[in-house]
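The following block was generated as part of the benchmark described in Methods. Ligand: biliverdine IX alpha.
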Amino acid sequence: NVSDRALDVSSCAQEPIRTPGAIQPYGLILVLDPQTLIVKERAIAQADLLGTFGDPLGHPIDDVFGGALARCRPALETIKPGTTQFLGAHAIGPHDGHHTLAHRLGDDLIVELEAPVPGEPGSLEDLYPAIRRFMEAIERVETTRELCELASVQIRELTGFDRTLVYQFDKDWNGAVVAEDGNGVLPSYLDLRFPESDIPAQARALYRQNRVRLIADSNYQPVPLVRSAGHAGPGPTDLSPAMLRSVSPVHLQYMRNMATGASMSVSLLREGELWGLISCHNAQPKRVPYHVRTACEFIGQILSLQISLKERAAVVEARIARRAIQVRLLGRMAGDTDFMAALGRDQHNLLALTQSAGAAIVHRGECLLHGECPNRSQVLELVQWLSVQQHEGDLYCTDRLPQLWKPAEAFADVASGVLAISISQIHDSFVLWFRPEVVRTVRWGGDPRKEETGLPLSPRTSFEGWKETVQRQSLPWDDVDRDAALELRTAIVDIVLRKAEEMAALNE
Ligand code: BLA
């Protein structure tokens, strides 16, 4: 039973990931006052830089590191609030080519410098052939899964990670690995599921805004942000947009438990919501050069768009097919004021309308059953229960009825799922569709219920596959099923009303 899972999700979701007060050591951060461009806070791991140039705290940007960033002043003076700008590469002392980014957020201007990676590509243009290959390849694939497989391969080729995978969220924010590419150094996670709390809500919210993150070394020493005395701000600085933002210690422990030395993830969005992530792992620590990350972000965006298109096309196709079924049913009902009899004459389409195995029509004390249904008295009892349930508009549906209503356990095999529309508020009139129990085996990445370490904030230590048998659930109902049922409801209500009006007219 999924709801038994005992991780303390609320405390995971309280990790202050936007304001960690520290950075990862593969670069340095200066926080400036946006008006004066004076450094009010900094995090610098490289002692030699401080030794050579002195502490930048309290100095204007033109003076720090021997004037290495003076050229950035015009851009820093004009950067718009809420935006990020790439300021090019800058040499600092003997160290060449620091990629420099500026982020304007609230009362802060964050400047982050990232040390170059030996042998890195000189520009995004160098990576264009790989991006182009990806664009060409996606034109040839049919399904979302194939798209994800291509992306895994392409991202691994670009980055050289040991394993790259595409992770897709479900409606409860559990995730499943839907595609993977790897060199065998790390275990395969293909088709494994991971619980919602592995990527808690505040992390998902941040990943909607900030699309790429690199944890170059899961064993790194965080470098604290140090503030100048005159700049005691109200709280810790928000590092949301910063690449170097130090990562939650809980997640670093998780990575070490997963036997990964480095990870990178790229957000996949659909209509502003997080659809999934491309998640990359390396057994050893690993830097990914700035331009390569940008190329990965770009591939993530292309993939996101293609996924949206493919999913939308699939829904459109399903709606057209259901519309055709609906037209046939309406045709039956048009010539007949007795909608129950009319629907009963076309049982095949009545069931196909919502992809169900059984249907029941309950109206004015009558009850007609079609296909695989609970028996008459069970259906009538269910209708009694449904009529006092809260439902959205005129529709009620669940794919796990026995969990919500005990008596349904008796007929879980034929009707673990029910979708019901109410036709009349006055009488208990309903059309109900049933779906049978589908026993599935779900493979989790580790037993999500176990707190092996005994600490409430610790992720599990083992990622050995753990099997769970999901029982007393049907296939889920989707929007296409619900809308098809509601449209049929409209047609029935029209007929019932018209009939009532005709009767009234006759009686006058
Ligand atoms: C972040 N958790 C993450 C991230 C991933 C995962 C991908 C984003 C950071 C990154 O790129 O590494 C989880 N990684 C996975 C999963 C797979 C994977 C599921 O590869 C599957 C293949 N995590 C826990 C628990 C807590 C928790 C119990 O398991 C809380 C107590 C927290 N995970 C957590 C937090 C973050 C995170 C706080 C945000 C890290 C940050 O950005 O600072």
